[in-house]
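Q: what does this look like with GFB bound?
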Amino acid sequence: MSKKILVTGGNGLVGSQFEGNDYIKYSSKLFDLRNTNHVDSMFRKLQYDPFNLNGVIHTAAKVGGVGGNMKYKGEFFYDNIMMNTNVIESARKHNVKNLVCFLSTCVFPNDVEYPLTEKKIHLGAPHTSNDAYAYAKRMAEVQIRAYREQYGLNYKTVIPTNIYGINDNFDIENGHVVPSLIHKCYIARETNTPLTIWGSGTPLREFIYNKDVAKLTEWVLENYDENEPIILSTSEEVSIKDVVEMIIELMDFKGEVKWDSDKPDGQYRKPSDNSKIKHYLPNFEFTPLYDGLKETIEWFETNYVKVRGYKQIKL
Ligand code: NAP
Ligand code: GFB
């Protein structure tokens, strides 16, 4: 009997990078993972299909940038805690032995000694700009550790830094910085209007390419079996100003750049220590940010009218 892996959030930035017949994906239109009955019927359906469900990669989530997180705290808490709790519990009830669940480096405490390491996840309050999302995600880590102890299941969590790449959500108000800036730079270039950047540009971030996240997650699903989460990071910080300069150069934008200090800077930095994943995969080659941005921008310009967050522009 063939083996299959269920990928929740299979249309998303990360989920879309798991490609091939080994992967099963369902849209939220078919199964709303906030709904316990939907999740149970999804796993029941998988149980009767002519293959063995060999594992679950749970990427589905209510996701957004600093703007979306601050505006929709209630939804970011409820949607994520319901989806995670439902998927982890229903997988257990339907005898799934192997599961990976996604957290994020924004779940770490805002005021803790840097760099961030897996052991520091619960050592204080997260940054206020995304605390609702962060606490909901932290509870998945607690649930998974509890299920490992009581049921002996090989369930684990990965903690990626800021992710970017093709198939992202290019929503200008609620999306993350890279897709938002690519989209805004495109509109500014095409309409000869200024490009407005949020905040001061001084915050520091670590960006990892979605294709790299998928490859590392495949390895974690098959090979990692520890109580502790594992950070997925390049451990290379860049300033938002650096990212803006790369995007402007790659999109050949020659217009005016404005900085909107009324918009949030969010957390100043969240530097992570990737020595655990590097210990297991010492030769893993992360995609350089400039190369990943180049590929993402080319994909965006080719697929503009089809992207999530598409906005018709008046030329
Ligand atoms: P994304 O592009 O926004 O994709 C999220 C997916 O979740 C979508 O495909 C959506 O399905 C699905 N989903 C949302 N609500 C759902 C619901 N109620 N029922 C069923 N499916 C639902 O997210 P992403 O950026 O790939 O994030 C993947 C994982 O990585 C998430 O757990 C996120 O928290 C984590 N993460 C992301 C980042 C980042 O910078 N993006 C950084 C660190 C960690 P449909 O398309 O079918 O609606
Ligand atoms: O990607 P972003 O929204 O997420 O913002 P966070 C990163 C930085 O980019 C912030 C700046 O300092 C923003 O001020 N920035 C500049 C912009 N221009 C823009 C813009 O046009 N749009 C956006 N969005 N930012 C998120 C968490 O924090 O990180 C989420 O809120 C999640 O929960 C995600 O964890 C990975 O890195 O600040």
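The first strand starts at residue 3 and ends at 8. The chain has a mean pLDDT of 96.
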